[in-house]
Specification:
The protein has 380 residues and is of the alpha/beta class. It is built from 13 helices and 15 strands.
C-alpha cells in the first residue's frame, strides 16, 4: 500500500471520528437538559471514574496512556459544553458588563496613588507615565500599597510585576493572593541602573553597594567584577540612593537611576551597570473597584486547579479551543496547602470578543478557585 492510500485511510477514519464526536456532544447536550430539569450537578465524579476505567479496558495496552489523555480532554470539553447550556452566563460576566457601562471613557489624569519606596523610585516614574498629575503617597512595603488601595486610603496603587532581565517580582505575586484588587492598566518603564556615590568617591574606594534585590539581579555581571565589595539589599533603588546620601560615607555606593543621583546630590560612577541595555519593568495600576476602560485587550486571572495529572492541561485546552492567546503563566505555592499552587494568567483578548465573554463565564462557573483580576490596556 503506498503513502497516498494510507493517507486516504486516515482521512476516512478522521471523518468517522468527527461524526462520532458530533454525536457525543449532542448526547452531552441532552444530558445537560436532563440535569437542568432535575437539578443535578454538572460534574459526576463516579460516572467519570467508571467511564475512564471502561475506556482503559477497551484500549490496546500500548495505546492506553494516549487514550486516557484523549478521553480526559473529551470529558473536559463535554463538561464545558454542558456548563454553557446549564449556565449560559454568570454574575461575573454581568459585573464586567456593568463596569464597562459605568467606567468613564477617559483614564483619569489626576488621582491619589500609592507607591512603594521614596521620591525618585521607578514606581514614581511609572505613576507619572500613567497619570498626568498624580498625587503620590509613598509606603515602605508592597503590602502597604495593597492595603492602602483595599482600605480606600488611596484610589489607585502602582506596583512592579516583572522585569525583562530578572523576571517576576515574586513578593508582589504572593501578595496578590492575599488582597482584593483589580488591575485597570499597565505600563512598561525603561530601567537604566547607575552606580552612584557621594561626591568625590572613586570606584576603588567602594566597599559596600546597596540596592533593591531586583536591581542587584539585573546588575549581576557588573557586581561579579567587584568580588571584595559587600552587596546589601534594601526596599527600593531610590531608598538606596537616599541611604548613601544620608550616610555621608566615602566607601558606600548605590545602584539607582540617574534621576535619583540628581535628586540626592550624588555622582554617577558608572552610567550603566545593568546586564542588558534592553531592560524594562512592567508595572500594574490597581484599584479597589473594577474599572474597564475602552480598548481593554489584556486580562489577568488567578486560578487553582485540582492537584492531579492533567488538571492544568485541561484548563489550558479551554483557551486553545476558544482561540485565546495565553501570554503569561506564573505559579505560586498556596500557603498551608501542601503541593497546591495558584496560577496567574495573562490573556490577550479584547473585552468585546464573544470568545472572551464565553471563557469568563466558563471559568467563573467551573467550580474551581478562580479570581478575575481585571481587563485593561497597556501603555507603551
Amino acid at each position: 500500500m503506498d503513502l497516498n492510500k494510507l493517507r486516504e485511510q486516515i482521512d476516512s477514519i478522521d471523518t468517522e471520528l468527527v461524526q462520532l464526536f458530533n454525536k457525543r456532544m449532542a448526547a452531552a447536550a441532552n444530558v445537560a437538559d436532563f440535569k437542568t430539569k432535575n437539578a443535578l450537578p454538572i460534574y459526576d465524579s463516579e460516572r467519570e471514574r467508571e467511564l475512564l476505567s471502561r475506556i482503559s479496558s477497551l484500549a490496546e495496552e500500548q495505546n492506553q496512556p494516549a487514550v486516557m489523555a484523549l478521553y480526559n480532554l473529551i470529558m473536559e470539553l463535554s463538561r464545558v459544553h454542558q456548563q454553557r447550556i446549564m449556565q449560559p452566563t454568570s454574575p461575573l460576566v454581568e459585573q464586567v458588563q456593568t463596569a464597562m457601562e459605568n467606567t468613564p471613557q477617559l483614564f483619569p489624569e489626576q488621582a491619589l496613588v500609592a507607591c512603594q519606596g521614596v521620591e525618585g523610585a521607578f514606581s514614581q516614574q511609572a505613576t507619572e507615565k500613567l497619570f498626568d498629575r498624580p498625587e503620590i503617597m509613598y509606603f515602605n512595603t508592597f503590602e502597604r500599597v495593597f492595603s492602602a488601595v483595599q482600605s480606600g486610603l488611596c484610589k489607585y496603587g502602582v506596583l512592579p510585576l516583572e522585569n525583562s532581565t530578572a523576571g517576576s517580582v515574586t513578593s508582589v505575586y504572593s501578595l496578590m493572593m492575599k488582597h482584593n484588587f483589580k488591575i485597570i492598566r499597565s505600563t512598561r518603564v525603561k530601567i537604566d541602573h547607575c552606580l552612584v556615590a557621594n561626591p568625590g568617591v572613586k570606584l576603588e574606594d567602594i566597599r559596600e553597594i546597596v540596592s533593591h534585590e531586583q536591581a542587584i539581579q539585573q546588575s549581576a555581571e557588573f557586581l561579579a567584577s567587584l568580588p571584595n565589595v559587600r552587596i546589601t539589599t534594601c526596599g527600593n533603588t531610590a531608598e538606596a540612593a537616599k541611604m548613601v546620601h544620608e550616610s555621608g560615607r566615602k566607601d558606600f555606593a548605590a545602584i539607582a537611576s540617574r534621576r535619583c543621583a540628581k535628586l540626592y546630590g550624588l555622582e554617577v560612577l558608572n552610567p550603566s551597570v545593568q546586564d542588558r541595555g534592553n531592560n524594562y519593568t512592567r508595572f500594574i495600576c490597581i484599584s479597589r473597584d473594577l474599572e474597564v476602560y475602552p480598548g481593554a485587550d489584556k486580562t489577568s486571572l488567578m486560578m487553582s486547579v485540582a492537584h492531579k495529572p492533567g488538571s492544568l492541561y485541561n484548563l489550558l485546552s479551554r483557551f486553545y479551543a476558544l482561540g485565546i492567546n495565553l501570554v503569561k503563566l506564573e505559579s505560586r505555592p498556596i500557603a498551608e496547602r501542601e503541593f497546591e499552587f495558584m496560577f496567574y494568567f495573562d490573556l490577550a483578548a479584547s473585552i468585546y470578543s464573544p470568545q472572551f465573554v464565553q471563557l469568563l463565564a466558563d471559568l467563573s462557573n467551573s467550580g474551581e478557585e478562580f479570581r478575575y483580576l481585571g481587563t485593561y490596556s497597556e501603555m507603551v
